[in-house]
Structures are given as structure tokens and as C-alpha cells.
């Protein structure tokens, strides 16, 4: 491997990055790899926006009476933090960036099934993002990202319509991406690539796509009905006419609970790839892990009522939803056990992706276990609406999904950019992120248990120490996120040139140059071995 | 963006596919997946409708009796006719009959336009009768007599569903008309052969789906409770 | 193409069937069947849908994968309606107590 040079290589072989130049070749590209980079830039932008709202909130919460903003503004901050982070960062992140880049490569195809739809879905995402940014600039929204009626539909005088349009539009980006992946995985696998030879990342993308396709349309219609009600002041969710606010919640959570599995399943797929590679072992129980992904996608549609235990849903419906919520934890737990079993007696190396993957396993497990407290009707009565919930979902979404995303970005960075990042800084950043994350969110479990409500701009004075601790952690976390942003951009020009397979990983994406040529493969590969054939390489038998 | 010319492309084949058959299978799967999303999209408002119909059946019944059942039935037959011309258009493409293809596509558009015209008339009637939620809600006379037993507030909910569901359906029809027009333009330029007519099939499937939505909307909105 | 060419007559017959069912469902609406009016209307609509799906949309000849997808779509919608409805149907089983007050004990039905 060549040493780091300060000048970019002058005569790089033809690849998807240098195949064509100029803004038109990027904005009108049909190449899934370039579209993935368009998404990379956009989701990073929205992550910074959503993160800025969080920074403002954490600064505000250092004082019991609020240190920074008016309560009305605070309401807008947590609303937009949620909307931006969920719809414009978490949901697209791994599928639209890593999925778009890797799915055709992993199946051994030249592109996705519908490249034009792929580009369209990015534009749809951008238009939706513009509406949402407009709503933020034009006064903000204060309903919470959950838009509960009748406040959002009747009483709030903030930019509900604009953000509703933004979310509605962006949903179609998600739908088209999922549609593209399902068709590609069904119809464009290379010769010899049977379903059970596919890398688990593909199974994760497939399961995620099922959720995107079946769930997102319900969000779209719900937002549509909400917007109608907001505009015409007559509606089906308003008690004044005999409408039921809970119906909105049913329709909203029918999508929004599976949505959290859209956010976590891809990260689980990434973790499977990383664990296998850096233990030099086939994932333990490959088929079970594959089926678990699909099981999570299916069962995830049957549990939405656990968000409504205390809002007036019938107790009997609550019981069913509670029981199903316990059930959906099982496939996730199976995956954690299988990853652990993969690590056992593996030949482990602690590269940055592996640090993120191991952090994922620990933090996701904590987040998942605390979910059981919330799935249980009796304890949820006390914990709902408190910071316990906030901590629970941040452990999964940040400790889980974001770390999975960063792990994946680092793992596949050589393939995407053709460069290596500086290993030392990557390791340091991973550790800083892990520490900063726990410092930010563990105190919130305690705060919630002690009774501090969420979405409040002020709190009793006895909670200040924990809040300040959390805000300090957020600062550390912010620094941790900044470091990869810097060195990854730096590496694109100054990083050491990467080989086709710097990690010695299995998978078709590693059998093509780094970065790949536009057409992905000179010849469509033929697959003859199982996934994760690491033991075969080592010769130690499995 | 440069691509290698690795093999000659049959008409209409995109580079990411190995052959037309694979492309056709992918296109078919893709449009069906999209229709599944539409099932869930319309399904959401059907679910909300189901809840309120169960809660306020009398109001829904009263509201339904204000609609013109004969016009609704006739319009349903018009739309079913457009489905017939649509499938005959696909068949014409399949047999390579370009004139028939264009003729049937235009017939489909014509019948679709009649459907939309009748709907526009029906919407106008709602304003005449003052049963438009929020915008013109002041039921009188015969309409009031039908709506009062179920409660006027709940009747407004019924009409909200009437406009939301048929409105969504109409929007989908208009999009379909646009797609049909695009097909006519392409057919006139000889874009389709008996081996490549996927766009016609895809639009056909979409059109049939929109028809199926109406097949359910008609009884659910016009035929509640009977008119005996 | 792998799809067989269906004779025009088949399509026309299906269309006539659809018209017949439309007239039937309209006619049934003028007869008092009580709750079965709804059942009849939905059954006829379902039959019309099956005719369109099988014949006009070609599912009669399509692959198993497409059929699974169609069934899955309707099944998922059924889940949405059924689970949501289960909330409304069971709310009355445990009505809220008449008086939520510290002094007066709640009265149970």
C-alpha cells in the first residue's frame, strides 16, 4: 500500500468519480454511486441542522428556568430537531447513502433496477427538505414531531402546513428507494447469488424496504388528512365535531413505529458485515439472522399501540400491543446473541469500523432492554412522557443507528472514495463519540425515572446536576462528530490510495477496484461460495 | 456519463439489464410494488372511514342518501368502460397494432374525461345543496331532513370523507390522464413493439388500480344502508 | 413476451360481468336487508375487484411473486383496520369510572 502523499494522483484509472466532470454530471447523474454521494452530502447537511437544534436545547437546559430561549421557541426547537433528524437524517441515512452505493455492487449488477427513479427520489427528498427548512425559517413548528391533533390541526398557529407538505413529499423519496431495492434484489442478482448466499446487509436492506413500501404511504395519507383539517378547519380528528384525536395517533404510529425499524435494521446489516470481517468469521447463525431481519419488519407493524398506552386507547387493545411489543424484541435479541457468538473465538482486530460495531452492540442492547420497561403497560404509565423515553430512543437511534451509520461509512470509505482515512484519528473519534454519547444520555434515564417530563422548557432545580452533565456530554459528542467530518473530507484528497480490498473482506463489492468504475464490474461476476467465506481463506474449517 | 458499449441494445432496453425479459419482469414487479403502496395510501383513509362509519352509522347513511345514486352508478359504468378500453389498448400493443393502440388510449382518456366531468357536476351540486364541510355547510330542506337524524356534526364528517376520498381518486385520475397522453405521444412516434410495450402495461395497471378504488368508493359512499 | 395474448372476447365478457354486478349492487341498495346490505355491497365490490385484478390486470397469468405482493398489500391494510378497530370496539368494555376523585370511590359497572 502506498504511503500518504500530499498531491492527488494525476493519472488515476477511470472510475465513477472521474468519469465525468461538472455540476451537470452530478445533478443529472443516473449512476447509483454518485446518487449515493448526493445523499451523503444532503444527509450530512441535515444532520448538522438537526444537531444545531439539539445544541441549542442542551444549552437552554443547563438552567432549571431555561438559559437560552422562550418556552414557545423551545417547543419549536424540539419539534424541528425531531422532524429533521428522523425524516431527513435517520431514515435516509444508511439506505440512501450506503444502500444506494452498495446494493447493486453486492448483488453483482451494474445499477439499481430503476436509476431514474433513484435520481428522482433524491430530488423529492431535497424538495421536501426545502419545505421543512422554510417552515423552520418562517416561524417554526411547535407541535412536536408527532403532530398530535387537535393541537396541530386546529389550535397551533405555527407553520404546520409547510412542514406537513415537506414530510409528505419526502415520504415518496423513501417509498421509491424501497421499491428500487426490492426489485433489484429480486431480479438482478448475479448468477450463483442465491438468497442465502447474499450478505446480511442485503437482507437488512430488503427488510427495511418492505417497511418503507408498506408503512410510508400511511404516513402520507395521515399527513394529507392533517393538512386538510388544518387548512379547512373541519376535520375528522377534532373532538368538536365528534372526531377522535386518537384516530390520528393510530394512523400516525402505524407508520412511525415501523419507521424506527427503518432506522435500525440497516444499521444491524452494517454491523453484521463489520463483525464478520473483523472477526474473520462467518456470522453465527446466518439464516436465523436473515429471518430475524424479516421478522422484525413484519412484527414491527403490529406494535404501534404501545405509543398510546396512556392517551386513551382501550386497555384490551393495549394488552395486545404490549404482548406483541415483547415479541418484537426477540428477533433483535437473537441478532445480538449471534453477533456475540461470532466474536467468540474470532480473530478480532479493532479498526474504527469494529469500534463502532461493538459500541452499537452495547448501546443498542441497553436501548432495547429499556424498551421492555416501556412495552410493559404498568411501568409505561409512569415512564411515558418523561426523559426515560428520550434516553431510550436516543440509545437506539444515536447509540445504535448513528454508530452503525458511522461504522458503515468508515468500513466502505475506501471503496467509496478510493482513499484511506487516518486510523488513529478514526479510533480516537469513535471513543470520544462513545464516551460523549453515554455522558449525554445515561443521565436522562435517571432523570426520567425521577420524573422529569420531556418537552418541557424548564424543570425542578434538583434535576440541574444531571441536566448539566447531559449538556456537557453533548459537547463531547459534538466534538466527536466533528472529527470524522474533518478527516473524511481531508482524506478525499490527501488520504493514502486504497486497494480494492483493504480489509480482506468477502463480498462482491470488494472484488472491484476502489473506487469502482461507473459500470461496477468489467464482467458480471459469478458467485460460487457462501457469504462470509472467511474460514475457507484461513483454512481453519468452520 | 460514459458507459461502455458492451452489447447491442434492443429497442427500449436499459443498460442495467441483461435482456428485455429481465427488464420486463423488473418493470412488472416495480409497478405492482407501487400499487401496493397505493393500497396502503388509500387504505389509510379507508381505515379512518371504517372507524367513523361504525361510530356514526346514521349520519353516514343520511349523507349517503343525498348523493345521486343513478349518476354514481352510471359514472361507475363509464369508468369500468375505460378499464376495458385500457386493457384493449395493452392488447393492441401486444399484437403490434399501432392504430388500435392509439385509438383505445384516446377512448380511455375520453371516458376518463366524462367521469371527471360528472364528478365536477356532482361537486357543484354539493355547493348548491350547501353540504360542503367548512366551505359551505348549511344544509336546508330535504338535505337537512336527511342529515338531522344522524347529527349534523357527524354528517359533516361523512362529507369530509366524501370529498377527501373522491378528491384523492380524482387527482389520481388526472395523473392517469396525463400518463395516457404521454403514451399516445410515444405511440405516435413508434416507440412500442410487440416485444417492448412495458410503459403501456404499467400505465394500464395503474389505471385499473384507480378503477378498483372507485369500485369500492361507489358502494361505500353511495350505497350506505339502502334506499328503501 | 411471456404473457399470452388474451382474446378480445374474454375482456368484453368480463366487462359485461362488471356492468352486471354494478347494476346488481345498485339494485340491492333498494331492498331492505338490514346489516346484510353492507355485506352484499362489499361482496359484490370484492367480486368486481377480483375480475379486474385477474383478467384486466393479468394476475391470472402472473408469477407467484406478484400474487404474493398483491395479497400482502391487502393483508397489511386488513391489519391496519383490524387493530385500529379493536381499540374502538373494546373501549366500552372498561368504561372510565364515573368519578375520578380522591373522596368518592369509583363506581364499577
Determine the most extensive contact between two protein chains.
B-C, 54 and 51 residues
Number of helical segments with 4 or more residues of chain A: 16
Distance between the termini of chain A: 30 Å
Percentage of residues assigned to helices of chain A: 55-70%
Question: Count of DSSP helices of chain C?
Answer: 3
Helix content bin of chain C = 55-70%
Average pLDDT of chain A, to the nearest integer? 94
* Strand content bin of chain A: under 5%
Order of helical and strand elements of chain C: HHH
The CATH architecture term of chain A is Up-down Bundle
The largest β sheet of chain C comes out as:
none
Using the coordinates above, name the CATH class of chain A: Mainly Alpha
Number of E-type strands of chain A: 0
Alpha carbon gyration radius of chain C? 23 Å
Mean pLDDT of chain C: 87
Percent strand of chain C: under 5%
- The CA-CA distance between the termini of chain C, in Å, is 67 Å
Task: Output the radius of gyration of chain A.
Answer: 23 Å
Q: Which term fits the overall shape of chain A?
A: globular
Spans of chain A of 5+ residues with little confidence (pLDDT < 50)?
A: 536-542
Describe the structure.
The complex is a heterotrimer of chains A (542), B (228) and C (109). Chain A has 542 residues and is an all-alpha fold. Chain A has helices spanning 23-27, 32-60, 71-107, 115-137, 151-155, 160-187, 200-232, 245-279, 286-299, 315-343, 352-375, 377-383, 387-417, 423-450, 464-494, 534-538. Chain A has 16 helices and no strands. Chain B has helices spanning 20-55, 57-64, 69-94, 98-128, 141-147, 152-188, 198-222; strands at 131-132, 136-137. In chain B, a hairpin with a 3-residue loop joins strand 1 (131-132) and strand 2. By secondary structure, chain C is mainly alpha-helical. Chain C folds into 2 domains: 1-61; 63-92. Chain C has helices at 8-28, 36-56, 64-91. The termini of chain C are far apart. Chains in contact: A-B, A-C, B-C. Chains B and C meet through helix 1, helix 3 and helix 7 of B and helix 1, helix 2 and helix 3 of C.
Amino acid at each position: 500500500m502506498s504511503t500518504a502523499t500530499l498531491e492527488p494522483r494525476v493519472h488515476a484509472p477511470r472510475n465513477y468519480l472521474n468519469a465525468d466532470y461538472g455540476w451537470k454530471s452530478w445533478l443529472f447523474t443516473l449512476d447509483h454511486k454518485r446518487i449515493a454521494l448526493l445523499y451523503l452530502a444532503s444527509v450530512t447537511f441535515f444532520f448538522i441542522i438537526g444537531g444545531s437544534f439539539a445544541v441549542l436545547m442542551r444549552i437552554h437546559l443547563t438552567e432549571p428556568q431555561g438559559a437560552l430561549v422562550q418556552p414557545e421557541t423551545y417547543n419549536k426547537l424540539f419539534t424541528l430537531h425531531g422532524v429533521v433528524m428522523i425524516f431527513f437524517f435517520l431514515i435516509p441515512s444508511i439506505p440512501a447513502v450506503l444502500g444506494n452505493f452498495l446494493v447493486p455492487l453486492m448483488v453483482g449488477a451494474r445499477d439499481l433496477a430503476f436509476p431514474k427513479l433513484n435520481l428522482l427520489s433524491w430530488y423529492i427528498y431535497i424538495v421536501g427538505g426545502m419545505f421543512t427548512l422554510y417552515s423552520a425559517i418562517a416561524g417554526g413548528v411547535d407541535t412536536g414531531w408527532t403532530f398530535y391533533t387537535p393541537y396541530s390541526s386546529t389550535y397551533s398557529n405555527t407553520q404546520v402546513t409547510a412542514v406537513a407538505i415537506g414530510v409528505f413529499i419526502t415520504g415518496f423519496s423513501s417509498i421509491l428507494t424501497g421499491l428500487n431495492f426490492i426489485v433489484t434484489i429480486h431480479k438482478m442478482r448475479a448468477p450463483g447469488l442465491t438468497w442465502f448466499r447474499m450478505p446480511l446487509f442485503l437482507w437488512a436492506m430488503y427488510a427495511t424496504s418492505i417497511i418503507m413500501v408498506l408503512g410510508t404511504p400511511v404516513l402520507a395519507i395521515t399527513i394529507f388528512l392533517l393538512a386538510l383539517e388544518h387548512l379547512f378547519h373541519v376535520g375528522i380528528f377534532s373532538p368538536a365535531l365528534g372526531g377522535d384525536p386518537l384516530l390520528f395517533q393510530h394512523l400516525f404510529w402505524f407508520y412511525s413505529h415501523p419507521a424506527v425499524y427503518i432506522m435500525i435494521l440497516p444499521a444491524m446489516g452494517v454491523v453484521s458485515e463489520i463483525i464478520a470481517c473483523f472477526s474473520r468469521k462467518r456470522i453465527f447463525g446466518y439464516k436465523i439472522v436473515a429471518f430475524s431481519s424479516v421478522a422484525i419488519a413484519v412484527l414491527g407493524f403490529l406494535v404501534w399501540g404501545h405509543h398510546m398506552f396512556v392517551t386513551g386507547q382501550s386497555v384490551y387493545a393495549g394488552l395486545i400491543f404490549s404482548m406483541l411489543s415483547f415479541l418484537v424484541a426477540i428477533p433483535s435479541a437473537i441478532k445480538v446473541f449471534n453477533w456475540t457468538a461470532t466474536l467468540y473465538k474470532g480473530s478480532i482486530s479493532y479498526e474504527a469500523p469494529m469500534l463502532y460495531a461493538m459500541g452499537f452492540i452495547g448501546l443498542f442492547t441497553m436501548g432495547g432492554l429499556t424498551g421492555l420497561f416501556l412495552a410493559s403497560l404498568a411501568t409505561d404509565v409512569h415512564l411515558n412522557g418523561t426523559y426515560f423515553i428520550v434516553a431510550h430512543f436516543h440509545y437506539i437511534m444515536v447509540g445504535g443507528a448513528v454508530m452503525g451509520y458511522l461504522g458503515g461509512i468508515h468500513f466502505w470509505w475506501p471503496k467509496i472514495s478510493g482513499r484511506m482515512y487516518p486510523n488513529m484519528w478514526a479510533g480516537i473519534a469513535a471513543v470520544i463519540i462513545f464516551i460523549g454519547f453515554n455522558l449525554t444520555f445515561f443521565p436522562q434515564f435517571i432523570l426520567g425515572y425521577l420524573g422529569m417530563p420531556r418537552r418541557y422548557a424548564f424543570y425542578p432545580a434538583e434535576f440541574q446536576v444531571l441536566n448539566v452533565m447531559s449538556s456537557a456530554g453533548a459537547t463531547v459528542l459534538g466534538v466527536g462528530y466533528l472529527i470524522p467530518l474533518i478527516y473524511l473530507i481531508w482524506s478525499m484528497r490527501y488520504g493514502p490510495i486504497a486497494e480494492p480490498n483493504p480489509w480482506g473482506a468477502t463480498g462482491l463489492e470488494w472484488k472491484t477496484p476502489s473506487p469502482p468504475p461507473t459500470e461496477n464490474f468489467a464482467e458480471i461476476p459469478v458467485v460460487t461460495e457462501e457469504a462470509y467465506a472467511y474460514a475457507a481463506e484461513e483454512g481453519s474449517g468452520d | 456519463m460514459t458507459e461502455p458499449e458492451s452489447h447491442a441494445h434492443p429497442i427500449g432496453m436499459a443498460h442495467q439489464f441483461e435482456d428485455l425479459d429481465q427488464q420486463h419482469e423488473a418493470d412488472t414487479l416495480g409497478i405492482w410494488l407501487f400499487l401496493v403502496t397505493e393500497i396502503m395510501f388509500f387504505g389509510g383513509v379507508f381505515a379512518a372511514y371504517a372507524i367513523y362509519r361504525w361510530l356514526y352509522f346514521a349520519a353516514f347513511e343520511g349523507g349517503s342518501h343525498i348523493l345521486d345514486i343513478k349518476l354514481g352508478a352510471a359514472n361507475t359504468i363509464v369508468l369500468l368502460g375505460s378499464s376495458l378500453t385500457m386493457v384493449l389498448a395493452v392488447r393492441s400493443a401486444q399484437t403490434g397494432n399501432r392504430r388500435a393502440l392509439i385509438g383505445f388510449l384516446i377512448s380511455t382518456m375520453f371516458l376518463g374525461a366524462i367521469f371527471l366531468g360528472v364528478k365536477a357536476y356532482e361537486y357543484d351540486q354539493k355547493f348548491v345543496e350547501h353540504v360542503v364541510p367548512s366551505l359551505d355547510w348549511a344544509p336546508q330542506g330535504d338535505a337537512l331532513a336527511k342529515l338531522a337524524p344522524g347529527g349534523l356534526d357527524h354528517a359533516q364528517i361523512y362529507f369530509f370523507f366524501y370529498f377527501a376520498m373522491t378528491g384523492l381518486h380524482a387527482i389520481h385520475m388526472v395523473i392517469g390522464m396525463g400518463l395516457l397522453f404521454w403514451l399516445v405521444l410515444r405511440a405516435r412516434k413508434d416507440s412500442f413493439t410487440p416485444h417492448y410495450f412495458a410503459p403501456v402495461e404499467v400505465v394500464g395497471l395503474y389505471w385499473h388500480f384507480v378503477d378498483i378504488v372507485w369500485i369500492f368508493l361507489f358502494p361505500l359512499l353511495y350505497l350506505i344502508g339502502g334506499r328503501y | 413476451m411471456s404473457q399470452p395474448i388474451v382474446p378480445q372476447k374474454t375482456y368484453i365478457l368480463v366487462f359485461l360481468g362488471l356492468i352486471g354486478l354494478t347494476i346488481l349492487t345498485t339494485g340491492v341498495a333498494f331492498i331492505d336487508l338490514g346489516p346484510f346490505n353492507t355485506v352484499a355491497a362489499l361482496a359484490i365490490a370484492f367480486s368486481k375487484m377480483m375480475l379486474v385484478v385477474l383478467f384486466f390486470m393479468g394476475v391470472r397469468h402472473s408469477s407467484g411473486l406478484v400474487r404474493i405482493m398483491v395479497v400482502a398489500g391487502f393483508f397489511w391494510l386488513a391489519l391496519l383496520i383490524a387493530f385500529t378497530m379493536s381499540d374502538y370496539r373494546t373501549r366500552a368494555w372498561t368504561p372510565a369510572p364515573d368519578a375520578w376523585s380522591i373522596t368518592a370511590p369509583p363506581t364499577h359497572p
